[in-house]
Amino acid sequence: MADDAWVLRIPKPRRRVMSVAVGIVVVLLLATTALLNGTKRVQLNGISFDVPFAWTVHTDIPPTTGPGNAVALIGTLPWGPCDPYDINCHYRERLSSGQIEVEVSVNSLLGRDMCSFALDRPDLAPRTDGIRVTETHYFRADRRPAIVTLFSFDGATDYYGSDGWRTWMFAPANSVDQVYEISAKWRGPGDDDFIAALDRLVSSIRLPTTNPNSPVPDCGDPFPSVGAA
Question: H or E stretch including 167?
């Protein structure tokens, strides 16, 4: 009986304490799930939009002297064994199953503005690699002229092993002389989820004006009028 004095007796946890602990764990799990399944806001050089929280946003890209300048690479394609600023090295990375990459760039249109480009559409010329344009639409994003182009591979392939491409062009808030271009490529499975995420990205685009008192150049046909957009 004397030995009983040395026995450490652990009382059963109170049910209230256990319930609170379980509740905290559940809340944390739900919050983590919501965070991972939610979105984050990306702001780049006068354009902003939402992307899935799990997508990486890479903006450490040096400027170039050509007609286009990439400002961000976004998605799930790993950067690869490249220096953070070495975009040309990264461009050698191929897509694996279930990956997507979205490139955001600021481009000139080689002597055209967006209004004349929309009428000429040199980008719709037939390709020689088997990839073809299936649809193109004119719309407005945050009241500004915008174009979306959808592609079909029909058994063709590209260097990256893509299953799909989609591109958008947007006029900035105060100009039609340059465009924001968003180009997406992805590899399934998960094509429908990728397309849904891209649709949400586009619907969330904001193009804030830098000078609300200055005249804003705009385009007519084939773009819908501002009131109809």
Answer: strand 164-170
Give me 126's structure tokens.
């037939």
**130 within domain boundaries:** yes
CATH number at residue 197: 3.40.1000.10
Tokens of 66: 């050509």
Is 11 inside any structural domain?
Answer: no
- Exposed, middle or buried, 131 (CB in 10 Å: 0-12/13-18/19+)? middle
**Per-residue exposure over 149-172, b if at least 16 CB sit within 10 Å of its own CB, e if not:** bebeeeeeebebebbbbbbbbbbb
Q: Does residue 198 form part of some domain?
A: yes
Amino acid at 4: D
Q: Which amino acid is at 88?
A: N
Q: What is the mean pLDDT of the chain?
A: 86
Give 10: exposed, middle or buried? Use CB within 10 Å, 0-12, 13-18, 19+: exposed
Cα–Cα distance, 208 to 48 (Å, whole number): 9
The domain tally of the chain equals: 1
pTM: 0.82
Domain residues for 191? 39-209
How does pLDDT run across 127-185, given as a tens digit for each residue? 999 999 999 999 999 999 999 999 999 889 999 999 999 999 999 999 999 999 999 99
